[in-house]
Amino acid sequence: MSTHLSPAAQFAAAAEAEARALLLAESVSAAVTISEDDVAPADEDVPVPFLAICPAAPPGYVAPEFPPVSEAMEEEVEGHPKATICVCPPAPPAYVRPGFPGDAVSDDVVDATASDENVARQVSAAAMFENAAAVDSAVGSDDDGSSDAAVASVEVRRSKVVDLNDQELFPALGGSTAKAPIAWGSKALPRATGALQQGKQQQRATEVVDLLMMQEAVGAAVLKIMERTGARIDVSHNAVLATSTYVISGAVDAVGRAKREVVAKLSPRVTQVVAVPAEARAAVVGVRGRGLQAIQAKTGAVLAVGAESFDAGDSFATVDVSVSGDALGVAAAVAMVEAAADKRTTRRVAFEAVARDAHALLVGKGGAGLRALQDAHSGVTLRIPGPLDAGAVGVAGERPAVQAACAHIREMSNALMGASQVVSVAVAKRQHRFVVGERGSGLRDIALATGCSVSVPPPRAASEQISVRGAPADVGQAVQMVLERAASLAVDTFDPAQAAGAYGRPLLYAQRALRYFHDRARLRRIESEHGAVLRVAAPAAVAAATDPAQLVIEITAPTPAAVAGARAGLAALFAAFPPHHFNGMDVEPHQAAALAESVGRLQAQRSVYALLAPEGGVLVVYEGFNPDVDRIADAAERERKTRDLLRLTLEEFRATLAAADPPVALVAQVPVAQQPAMAAAQEPLLRAAGAAEGASRVVLRFGSVATAQAEPLNSRVTPRKDDALAPESVEVRGPADAAARVVAEIERRVAQAAAALALRSFRADVAVPQGLVARVVGRGGETLKKLRAGRDVNIDVADASVRITGTRSDVDAVSAEISALVERLADECAETIVVAAELHRALIGSGGKFVRRLGDKYHVRIQFPKADSAEEAEPLGADQIRIRGGRAGVESAKAELLELAAYEIEHGHTVKFSVPADCLPHVVGRAGSRISEIKDASDTRIDLGESTGGQAVDVTIVGTRAGVAQARAAIEAVVAEQQAQADDVVVVAHCHHRFLIGAAGARVRELVTQAGGDPDAATGAGSCRVQFPRAGSADADSVRLKGDRVVVAAVRARIEELVAERERQVTVAVNIPATQHAFVIGRGGAHLKQLQDAHSVEINFPRRGGSDADVRITGLPDNCAAASAALLALVRDEAKVVVALAQHQRLGGRTSALWRRVRADFGVQVDAAHVDRAPPKPAFDENAADDVVFLPLALDGLTAEWILRGEASKLPAALEAVNKALAESVESVDARVRVDPRSHRHIIGKQGAMIAKIRDATTCDVAVPARGSESPWVSVTGPRNEVERAIDMINDAIEERA
């Protein structure tokens, strides 16, 4: 067949070609079989005929003699007079079945011969599914059985010779004047004329069915079909094509029934996978799977669509559609799937299978070949698998371009493979992975650099040959790159078994040593020391090894020296642990827990390390560093001592196990059928019996299930051989009590399963008419699923009955439901009512909930017209609704539907208007909240059109007249509110943004408030949101205003006014001494804020500690001048006083009485310009014997500088008052008073009242240890006389609370 035809077109061409072959054959023989008398002699000029059921022979082909009938064929029809056997001659070797010719016969040829009385109309396998009516004939029939015979033919007289020039038989392919065409599969057959009128009373028909050959004999099945249907069936087999042809003749209804049984029972089940483009998946599946259901209903095949596992945007994404069924149904279903895919997309994805070596050749050096292919076929996308990727070359694009590209790829790959040269090079097996590289990167690099492909044998293969294929000029370079990559790392091996020396069991020694080294991580140390990588078998593989060669360690490193160092390290490690350092013994799994307590003690006392395997077995290893062993100089004596040490350890283990309860082996009887499930779920079983771990661990062995339970690791010299078990026995081995519990649990489960089986052994058969079986099953088995839901039953459907198996109550319930369902279906009727199409949506309900409720309530099916209903057998009109079901249910559903329609008419007042598209989001609200609120308040249905870029969106409101008016008013109110909103942008230089924002957004809020808006409103009346861009953004000068149109306009005007003022502003500098900045700013910035607000300026003081003393004022010129004068007016005269540090600590500070008195009496501010750092206080002896200790103050020579600022007239008097206070001050002392920590709270008083009273009364500083401190010492600092007074007040406070 031409590959340029679509599958659907190929299918149609096959039907036409086979029909033409049948026409040619019919002119030779009207019967199905040909006797020897019908065959012309060899010397006559008459072509040797083929059977009507065989493919037409190619030109010039002479059929050989018919082969003899085999004994198996004779046995198939023995004893049945109607059965005949026809064996087709084998086709020549080069013969291709002409089922798919390159030039298809047109419909005119078939139509022109449809009415000829000498032509027997026979249907091929392909033509059987040409239309829906023929499909119905192939897979089932209507209730009256009128469509059982899709295509009927009438036996006619035989004509020996065919006149190929007969225009009546073979009209021209142009415009035809033929009579009415054959109605393939139609129920009304064309009426016979002439000689055919003589047999019209019999209404006989003949049909030919071509199926794949069955593996087993079909004779018995054919005889049974003939007995049941009364039709005659002739069978012939073609061994070359592996097909069987069934010629069915007899009465029309008998032929139809026999054909259905032949197709259903004698066609092998086949499965074909169709890859359709991913975007066509929805077209194949259909809405809610209706596409698949239609194909399955028409063809009888079962379709399964693969999951969507492809990546979005992948041009090679396909979805696999698996089609299973008989050969005819599968072929028809595949054609229908292809046709459905063609409706969605003309794209195709093809995967051209070429030799794997050709992949790299197609890519070419540097990808040149792939680029050339892509340039030559620009309309497709190519994908060539990587060196390690499986699959074929992918081609995606339009169908003609894909076919051309595939042909070019085949031609190009054959040419490249033919012109290539293959060179093999031997590379050590362990170096193959260096050639391959990480995920095939090495092979990919070689292919891109040389255009050659490299084939590396699989890791399990013994071959060391690497094949390089490519152009002769490039193969040498590729081989060189292979050798370079193979030698990129140094590799060596180390055989642990060779380290066993004279020990007789090298495999056992290697297993024990590697098991120990894995557990102690000894091999990782060698890797880190030498920078090498050791490839060592995993612990499970070590335990399962049967040959020392399986345990060889591979060493890989960047340099040979590193490999040699790692190998030497391995040799030293194994030499340090010779065979006599290991020993072992078998223990039961549950006994390992009893030995765990001894492991740590033995390692500490004897340097013996014990490995306890969870599945049983103990391995003991002498690790060295035992003085009793290591000090022995004689090697033989040291080896004997080591063996004795390990033997003594194992004897202790045996003694420990002997003291414990010995294990027992119990046997439970379990049916063979239950053992696999029990073996797969051992852990839940053991946990249920409390025997899953620790000292209660038991082991199960099944008589009919081979459990994958590992032997104890490296502990046995010879494996333990367990006694054989009977198939129905399960051995339970472990502690007596745990084993007994497990046996009891097993017996309980076996009894429970037996009871459940007995309980579910009830069975009932319900007779179901053949025509109602599909209705009982339901679409996709939906009805059976509902029947099984919540019930413990199995339901099996046969041709005319349903068998239910399960518990008695469930079987009775399901049988009753099925019987009632059959009665309803038998009483089924259909009625069509007329309801205006615009009401259908309301009757269906959201998601079909209304119509589903009616269907479930009255057991009816309600069908509404579909967009593609014209393709249905009985299409519905746009305003029609069909109700199908029991008569009572149909009447009830009809009444309720009409009542609901009347309600919809009454409540179906509809108004349609439009709203601006930009207002739609506001009408809907967040997550639909606003539109839902309007619906609920007005009790209406509101449909919103989609915004497709237009200026307006349609709104449709359905409900009562009042509700519609209310909903419309609410929507229009939202629109009006939004139209009153403005979205404006004002351009403001970025340098002004900070000023406009203000501190924490204060100025923005002030602007909105001044404009009559609400700064807290996000939307609606009075709202105005001011959005400033981020620094560095593209629109850094754009300030967006959103909100009430009036407020936005006012804010915009004010912003422009402020910006204009700032652009007229100037900056002046005022020199103010740095020492007076803090005074001028004022406490908390009070003076500064007052000045800025009073003069509408911005005043910036320099950073503290900087060299610049100028204060900068920004604003309008007049405002700056006034602010400068006001600043200078705040500047005061200064006077400095140097005082001792001790006096500063006693009299100075912002909270001191002296400074406050000077400020209050003279208006003079006192500040400390500089204060020397006091040295740390000397350490105090917490254990001093005295209750009061006076400490010296080491402040001699340390000073502080005070600055007095004020008016010149008052400054001398203030200075005099300060000097007088300094002169009158006395020296301070630091005293420590011992006070019981429990009394410290009495010194502090409630909320610190007492300690504050002491400080104010004595001017002393009193410090109490922190809460929780155990120190008894309270610190008192001040003049000596005041300190003594403070101590008295402390004692008084304690005595009062005592």
What value does the Rg take, in angstroms? 52 Å
How far do the termini sit from each other?
118 Å
Largest sheet: 4 strands, antiparallel
Query: What is the residue-mean pLDDT, rounded to a whole number?
Result: 76
Strand share of the residues? Answer: 15-25%
Query: What's the helix count?
Result: 46
Uncertain residue ranges: 1-9, 22-201, 708-720
> What fraction, in percent, of the residue positions are helical?
40-55%
Helical/strand content category: alpha+beta
Strand adjacency order, main sheet? 39-41-43-42
* C-alpha geometry: extended
Number of DSSP strand runs: 43
Descriptive notes:
By secondary structure, the protein is an alpha+beta fold. It is 40% helix and 19% strand. The protein has 46 helices and 43 strands. The strands form 14 sheets. It has a four-stranded antiparallel beta sheet with strand order 39-41-43-42. Strands 1-3-2 form a three-stranded antiparallel beta sheet, with helices on one face. A three-stranded antiparallel beta sheet has the order 4-6-5, covered by helices on one side. Strand 23 (793-797) and strand 24 (801-806) form a beta hairpin. Helix 20 (592-606) packs antiparallel against helix 22 (635-659), helix 30 (849-858) runs antiparallel to helix 31 and helix 42 runs antiparallel to helix 43. The longest helix has 25 residues, at 635-659. The chain is extended, with a radius of gyration of 52 Å. Mean pLDDT is 76; it is low at 1-9, 22-201 and 708-720.
